[in-house]
Amino acid sequence: MSQFLEGDIDILLATEAAGMGCNIPDIARVVQFKAPDSLSTWLQRAGRAGRNVSIQARAVLLIQPSVFQEVGRSTHKDGDTIVYKKTIEPGLRRWVEVPIEQC
C-alpha cells in the first residue's frame, strides 16, 4: 500500500479491507470484479475514484454471467417470478439492467 500511496506503483489490487478508512484523492479508475451485495456497496466502492476534481475518473463493474442467467427458464409461464442463479439486491439489479441508451 505504501508504494501505491507514494506513486511507485500505479495499480493496486485490494480487498475491501484495504480501502477502509483510506482517502486517496488521485484514484482515476476503480474496477470491481463480480457484483457486490447491494447498490449502496457498489456506489461506496465506485466513489473511491474521482475524489480529486481535476481527475476524470471512471468506475467499472464487471458482472458475472450468473447474475443474468435465469433458473428454470424453459418452464417459465407468463406472470412467474424470475429466479436468477446469482441473487443480487433489487436496487442493484435495476441499475445493472438499464438499457445502454439510457446510460
TrEMBL record:
One of its GO terms (biological process) is double-strand break repair via homologous recombination. Gene3D superfamilies: P-loop containing nucleotide triphosphate hydrolases. It catalyses: Couples ATP hydrolysis with the unwinding of duplex DNA by translocating in the 3'-5' direction. Residues 1-103 form the Helicase C-terminal domain. Signal peptide: none annotated. Its EC number is 5.6.2.4. PROSITE patterns: HELICASE_CTER. GO terms for molecular function: 3'-5' DNA helicase activity; DNA binding; four-way junction helicase activity. Pfam families: Helicase_C. It comes from the Eukaryota. One of its GO terms (cellular component) is cytoplasm. Keywords: DNA-binding, Isomerase. Belongs to the helicase family. RecQ subfamily. This is DNA 3'-5' helicase. It comes from Dichomitus squalens (strain LYAD-421).
